[in-house]
C-alpha cells in the first residue's frame, strides 16, 4: 500500500469521455489499496478561452482578476472528475486551492507555493477518500485566488506529493515517457526507464516538453519520485497497475539509478539566434553593461562565449537569444553602443542548439570530443559551445538540426537497447 | 449620495461587448457619487453548459460537486467585469461567495442564505471601490461552495442589498420594467412606475417572469426597494442616471405608493391541468389523504376548490396542476383510490389561469363581479375560481387565454395612462 499523487493534463480531461478514462486510472490505483490524490488541469482549450476573454476585456489587466477568471477552468474539471469517480463507486471529493489551503505568495499570475496543509486530505485517506485537487491554483495572502503560471498543474502535483509525503507523483500525459531524444526526429529513440532529476532538468530546459522545468526543480529539491506515463492507454491493460514497474519513465535521485549511462539523451532547441560583439573593451564590468539592459528588457540570454579579440587587447562576446527576441535585443544593443564600447555587431538567426546530456559525463573524459568529431564527420559546422558538468551544448545552423540529433544519438549508442 | 446594488443577468453579460455596456451603467452610478456593489450572473449559456457536463458525468450527482462546477460561471463574469471596470478607470474588485463570506445553509444545489458579512465591502466603499460579486453562490458550513438554485442571482442581489443596507437594488434585465400585463398579448399594456411587494409576489408567482418569486419574498421581508430596469438601453441616455426617477418599475412597500389602483395588473399561466374527484367521502382528513401523496411526489398543486356533491352527502374536489405533472398526478390518484374514497376522476389539460391583481381590492367591493361579467360578455366559460385578499384567479379553457387577458386588462382601465 503506497500513497500516490496522479496528475492529468488538459488533453487527458478534454471531455467527459476522457474524464471517464482518467477515473478508471484512478480507480485502478484505489482498488490496489493505495491512498490517492489527483491533480487536474482545465479541459483542453478552456484556459485559452478564459485568457482570451481577459485580454479582450483589457490588454493590460489586474493579475488578481485574471487569476479569478482563469482558475475556474481547473475548478470545473475537479468537480466533474469527482462526480465521475463517485459514479464508479469511488469515494472522492474535489478541493480548490483555497479549501486545502495551498498557500502561495502574492505574485498573482505567476505565484510560488509557500505551504500546503495536507492534514485534512491525509485524514480522509484514512476513510478511503480520494482527493481531487484543482491544479494551477492556490490562495494568496490577500485571501484571493492565485495561479501558478505556465505549467502550473505539474508544479501543483509535485508540491502536493511533497506535502503528502507521497511515494510517487505520476504525471499522466499525452506521451508515454521520456525518450532518449525526440522520436519524431529519430525513430530509434528509446523510452528511458529512469532518468535523474539533474538530467531531466537539462532535458526539460532544452526543449523536451514532457515536463515543465519548474516542476522538475521542485521534484529535485523535495526528492519527489516523479513518473511520466500515458493517460491514453487502456487503464486496465496488463502492467498498468504494476506498482514497481509500470510503463513510463521514473525521474528520481541518481542513487536510484544503478547502471549510469555516460550519455542519457540528446535534446535540442530550434529558433535560436546568435549575436556577436567584436572588439569589446576588455575591462571589469563590461559583461554587466551588456547583459544588464537585456535582462531588464526580459530578453532571455542563453549561451555566452567570450574570447580574446584578434588584436589581443579587446574581447569578443557571443551569445544566443530566442529568435523571437532578436529584434528587441539588437535594438537594445544599438542604443547602448556607446556605453558598452564595441565595434561591430553581427547577428544571425535560424540556428539550433543541440545538447548531449548525461550524469556519467562527470566521470568520463572525451565525451565532448566524441561529439565534435561526429559532427565534423557529417560536415556540420560548430558555431559555439558551452558545457556544464552534465551537459554539452553546441550551436549549429538550423538546417543541420535533424542530422545532428541523429548523429549524436547514434554515436553515444542510444539507438541500442540497454543491456 | 446613495448606496446601490446593481444586478445584471446572463444575457446582459453574454460577451465582452455586453460586459462593457454593463460597466458603463456601473460607471455612471459611481460618477454620480454612489457606493456601488454589482451582482452578476454567468454569461448566458454558460450555466447550461456546466449543468450539461454534470449530467453527462452522471445522471445522479453529488450536489456539492455540482455546485463547485456550476458556480464557476459567475466567478468568470465577476473577474471579467472587474477588469473592464478598471479599464474605464473605476476602482473595482471581484468577490466570490466564499470571500465575502456570503454564508448559506448546507442545502447544496438549492441553498438558503444565512448571513452576509458586508463589513469589508462597506469599508472599501469608503475608499471608492466597487464590489463585483459573483451571484448565485455562497459558502456552506462544510467550507464548500453552495449555489442558491434557480434565479439565485436575483436572490443574491436582494440579500446583498439588505446586508449592505442599500438604498435600492436595481435589477437590470432584458425588459425595461414590470407591465400591467404581458405586452406580447396586449400591446396596450403599460409599464408601471411602482408596484407593491405583495402585488409583485402575485405577479411573479403567476408567471410574470421578470423576477424570481424568491427574490421578491426576500425583498418584501427585508423591505429592499427593488427596481426593475433595462440593461440594453444606452447607459448614458437622458434620465438613466436620474436617481429619483429612472426609467423602470420600483417594487416597494405599499406605503410608498401614494395613489393605489384597485387593480394593478393581469397575470396568466398557461398549460394548467384540472383534476376533479367526484363523491369524495366527506370526513375529516380526506384532503390530507388526497394532497399528501401528491406533495410527497413533488407535484405542485395550485387552485383547490371543494364543493358539496350533488347528493349532498359527499364532496367534490377540484384542483389544478401544471400540465407536465398531470400524468404523474393521475397515476398517484389512481393508486390511492381506495384510501381516498371517491367515485370518478375527471381530468383535463390545456387550461389557463388568468389572475387579476391589486392591493386596492382589499377596500373595494365588486372587483370579482366585474371580472366574471366581463368574461361572460365574451362567452368565456369559467371552470374554477380562487381568491385571495389581493388576487382573483380564474381557470378557463386555453383557447381563450389572450382574449381573457385583453378583456380584463381593458375592463379595469389598465389600457389608459394613469393620471
From TrEMBL, chains A, B:
- Report the enzyme's class at the first EC level: transferase
Write the Enzyme Commission number(s) for this entry.
2.7.2.4
Tagged with keyword Cytoplasm: no
Task: Tell me which Gene3D superfamilies the record gives.
Answer: Acetylglutamate kinase-like, VC0802-like
Pathway(s) the chain acts in: Amino-acid biosynthesis; L-methionine biosynthesis via de novo pathway; L-homoserine from L-aspartate: step 1/3; Amino-acid biosynthesis; L-lysine biosynthesis via DAP pathway; (S)-tetrahydrodipicolinate from L-aspartate: step 1/4; Amino-acid biosynthesis; L-threonine biosynthesis; L-threonine from L-aspartate: step 1/5
**What positions does the domain ACT occupy?**
275-350, 356-419
Q: Which Pfam families match?
A: AA_kinase, ACT, ACT_9
Q: Which UniProt keywords apply?
A: Amino-acid biosynthesis, ATP-binding, Kinase, Lysine biosynthesis, Nucleotide-binding, Transferase
Residues annotated for ATP binding in this entry: 7-10, 173-174, 179, 184, 209-210
* Binding annotation for substrate: 47, 74
Catalytic activity field: L-aspartate + ATP = 4-phospho-L-aspartate + ADP
Name the domain of life. Bacteria
Coiled-coil stretches are: none
Would you tell me the Gene Ontology cellular component terms? cytosol
Task: Tell me a GO biological process for this protein.
Answer: homoserine biosynthetic process
Q: What molecular function terms (GO) are annotated for this protein?
A: aspartate kinase activity; ATP binding
Q: Does the keyword Nucleotide-binding apply?
A: yes
- InterPro entries per UniProt: AceGlu_kinase-like_sf, ACT-like_dom_sf, ACT_Aspartokinase, ACT_dom, AKii-LysC-BS, Asp/Glu/Uridylate_kinase, Asp_kin_monofn, Asp_kinase
Family affiliation: Belongs to the aspartokinase family.
Recorded hits in NCBIfam families, A to Z, give:
asp_kin_monofn (TIGR00656), asp_kinases (TIGR00657), PRK06635.1-2 (NF005154), PRK06635.1-4 (NF005155)
Q: What is this protein called?
A: Aspartokinase
Protein's organism: Aureimonas fodinaquatilis
Source organism phylogeny: Bacteria, Pseudomonadati, Pseudomonadota, Alphaproteobacteria, Hyphomicrobiales
